[in-house]
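From the pipeline queue, job 12 of 40. The input is one protein chain; the requested action is below.

Action: predict structure.
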Amino acid sequence: MWEIITSSTPDILWAGIKYTIPIAVISFAIGLVIAVLTALVRISTPRGNRVLVFFWHLLKWILGFYVWLFRSTPLLVQLFIVFFGLPNVGIQFDAWTAGILTFSLNTGAYASETVRGAISSIPQSQWEAAYSIGMTYQQTLFKIVFPQAIRVALPPLSNSFISLVKDTSLASSITILEMFMVSQQYAARNYQPLLMYCIVAVIYALFCTILSILQHYLEKHFSRYLTQEVA
């Protein structure tokens, strides 16, 4: 058993470093951009000519539908649609691109609600106070609202990223050679599925533990300016 552990663990760990972590990081970064843009559009109320207002509301409806769609369907089904289904209509992606695209869109849908809630949690009085001293919408957003919203959104966004790291195991279903697929290949060779899946579970737990520690320090960093009530 020890020989199986020592021979398979380095390959599984390398697959995690080479594929699992990059997929998670890239997908989360893209998804976060999508989330912020989606949230900003959905909470804003444009003013101006009727044509602009109409198209803005149409965009809000499209983004609302996107969020609903990706939150209402399983991630595995989304991966299969993008990788196996879209080629039937002439849209084809390689496994890596299909995985990144699907994970990004899925993350963006969930994270957009987190970002929207964090921005909405900032009192309207702070917007009004910023406008009263001559700050523009963009200045208020980036200098007043975002710094506070980041602290509110950080815990759920961190949880989303940790979940995404675990969800990358689904990438094996579209032939990406990440950690779970490597463990499956070893299990097929040595006929020790319980041992191999326990090994990959321990490695996932190790990655997520490191991320949880990082989350703790990030939360502490962004909360350093909060005043504490004196008992």
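Job complete. The mean pLDDT is 90.
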